């Protein structure tokens, strides 16, 4: 049974007379029953007025006929009693009983001076239907949702002022009200809105799911109310690249924790004034958590980059591995954007053969998220039918955490290559046979000149595990290499002007260059073969 008691009477009378809505009054009375807040607004107003008419000397209760968790408590501690002060530095005079009664009669139609209407109009069925209409027309797949709300930062300032007012009143009665005991506005709003959204959408609310429905509120009329805090606590308000204003909710809360009561009261009215207008719902947004698709790709073209090749704003080649794969996934999942990653990368003129290179695509804010294994297989086939430059295998849905296994292989696993090599001076079979006997050859590779514009200058130790040569003619041979991941093969062949030591040229004591390079295997056991 959730109820208000006699000790709540001063809070109810004070806040109702200063323009605070019934649900905010319940918050300041530390009522923790969720169901109470869901009662119709007019019914709550009527109940509070009836409660105030009760003149019994002993503890009286107004019951809301619910069974819920126990209320948050008002701590019966000795409280410091602030002096009676006004807007020039103090709390305004608390209204007399006759003034309060007159104000209470006129309070029902006002915009709440604490929540600015959030717990009034925006809890009604019309607004809930507006939110659900946005969700429905956005065409998302979901089986549950999480609801989030963004509130104007000045609400924290108004709540602080109301708390100081109540704190003074309670102090005179020998009681204390800790700010942490007040039910948070966001919490109360979600208690009210969750059941309505669930009923309208036909799915449960679940704080752990990826589909988010969010509402952003604003109140331009009071936007500047928190600006005085920047003068009082300048260190709390620091510009951030991704924030349009320094007056974020967290910055305001931090400043309110630091500012002295007397300094706050010099700048802000207590109780807060009643606004003329309600808050506005600036945005109603839907967002699905990212979905991850993984597989392995083969690249058969020597004129196809892994990612779009753009130099100085000019596109060099018309397509890329990333785009050939992701454009089909984007269409099927109806996503806003994507992020492509892979276990290493090959140059534009290098083929990837064998069982392919592991890759993953993060699909951002997808509308469709449920696919059967058969549908995923059909998607793989569509990718493969669209181009003869690439092929995809083992396409599957994976978790974000699983992608870490792919990244682990970039530096730790081995890779196998096949290189077609040219030499300036003629060679015989016996000239290259010794390469087959070299095992665990240690290299020192300075960052290659060709990638120096995008990689830091460093000397990287790398290992050539094994080599197998195949003589072709006096100036050509094929070399198969198993290497540590991250080894620059082209530079190992021609030496990169001495930046890779040793190299094939130095080992053969002649000039060598690479004509063709193929990746034959990337030894990362991920994703699982299908």
From TrEMBL:
Keyword Ligase: no
GO MF: metal ion binding; RNA binding; tRNA pseudouridine(55) synthase activity
Compartments, record wording: Cytoplasm; Mitochondrion; Nucleus
Catalytic reactions on record: uridine(54) in tRNA = pseudouridine(54) in tRNA; uridine(55) in tRNA = pseudouridine(55) in tRNA
Domain Pus10-like C-terminal: 292-523
Domain of life: Eukaryota
Biological processes, Gene Ontology terms: tRNA pseudouridine synthesis
E.C. code: 5.4.99.25
GO cellular component: mitochondrion; nucleus
The entry's keywords: Coiled coil, Cytoplasm, Isomerase, Metal-binding, Mitochondrion, Nucleus, tRNA processing, Zinc
Pfam families for this protein: Pus10_C, Pus10_N_euk
InterPro entries membership: PsdUridine_synth_cat_dom_sf, Pus10-like, Pus10-like_C, Pus10_N_euk
Ranges in coiled-coil conformation: none
Record-annotated Pus10 N-terminal eukaryotes domain positions: 112-286
Family that this chain belongs to: Belongs to the pseudouridine synthase Pus10 family.
Protein name, as recorded: tRNA pseudouridine synthase Pus10
């Amino acid at each position: 049974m959730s109820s208000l008691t006699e000790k709540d009477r001063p809070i109810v009378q004070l806040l109702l007379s200063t323009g605070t809505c019934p649900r905010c009054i319940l918050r300041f009375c530390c009522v923790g029953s969720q169901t109470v807040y869901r009662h119709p607004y007019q019914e709550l107003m009527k109940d509070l007025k009836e409660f105030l008419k009760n003149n019994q000397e002993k503890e009286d209760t107004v019951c809301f006929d619910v069974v819920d968790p126990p209320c948050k408590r008002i701590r019966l501690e000795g409280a410091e009693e602030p002096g009676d002060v006004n807007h020039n530095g103090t709390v305004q005079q608390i209204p007399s009983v006759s003034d309060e009664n007159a104000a209470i009669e006129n309070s029902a139609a006002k915009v709440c001076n604490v929540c600015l209407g959030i717990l009034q109009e925006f809890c009604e069925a019309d607004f809930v239907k507006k939110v659900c209409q946005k969700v429905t027309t956005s065409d998302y797949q979901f089986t549950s949702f999480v609801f989030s709300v963004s509130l104007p930062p000045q609400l924290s300032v108004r709540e602080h002022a109301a708390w100081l007012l109540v704190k003074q009143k309670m102090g005179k009665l020998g009681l204390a009200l800790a700010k942490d005991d007040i039910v948070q506005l966001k919490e109360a709003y979600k208690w009210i809105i969750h059941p309505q959204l669930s009923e309208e959408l036909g799915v449960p609310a679940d704080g752990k799911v990826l589909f988010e429905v969010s509402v952003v509120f604003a109140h331009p009329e009071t936007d500047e109310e928190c600006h005085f805090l920047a003068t009082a606590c300048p260190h709390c308000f620091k510009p951030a690249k991704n924030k349009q204003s320094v007056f974020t909710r967290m910055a305001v809360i931090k400043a309110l924790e630091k500012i002295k009561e007397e300094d706050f009261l010099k700048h802000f009215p207590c109780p807060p004034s009643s606004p003329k207008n309600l808050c506005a719902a600036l945005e109603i947004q839907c967002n699905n958590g990212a979905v991850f698709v993984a597989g392995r790709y083969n690249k058969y073209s020597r004129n196809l980059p892994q990612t779009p090749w753009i130099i100085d704003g000019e596109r060099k080649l018309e397509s890329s591995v990333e785009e050939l794969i992701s454009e089909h996934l984007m269409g099927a999942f109806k996503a806003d954007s994507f992020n492509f990653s892979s276990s290493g990368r090959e140059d534009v003129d290098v083929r990837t053969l064998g069982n392919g290179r592991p890759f993953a695509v993060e699909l951002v804010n997808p509308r469709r998220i449920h696919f059967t294994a058969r549908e995923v297989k059909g998607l793989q086939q569509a990718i493969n039918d669209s181009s003869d430059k690439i092929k995809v295998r083992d396409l599957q849905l994976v978790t974000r955490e699983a992608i870490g296994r792919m990244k682990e292989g970039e530096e730790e696993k081995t890779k196998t290559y096949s290189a077609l090599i040219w030499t300036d001076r003629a060679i015989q079979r016996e000239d290259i046979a010794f390469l087959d006997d070299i095992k665990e050859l240690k290299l020192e590779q300075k960052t290659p000149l060709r990638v120096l514009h995008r990689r830091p200058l460093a000397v990287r130790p790398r290992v050539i595990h094994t080599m197998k040569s195949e003589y072709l003619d006096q100036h050509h041979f094929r070399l198969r290499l198993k290497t540590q991941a991250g080894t620059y093969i082209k530079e190992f062949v021609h030496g990169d002007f001495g930046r890779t030591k040793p190299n094939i040229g130095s080992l053969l004591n002649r000039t060598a260059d690479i004509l063709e390079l193929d990746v034959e295997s990337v030894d990362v056991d991920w994703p699982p073969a299908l």
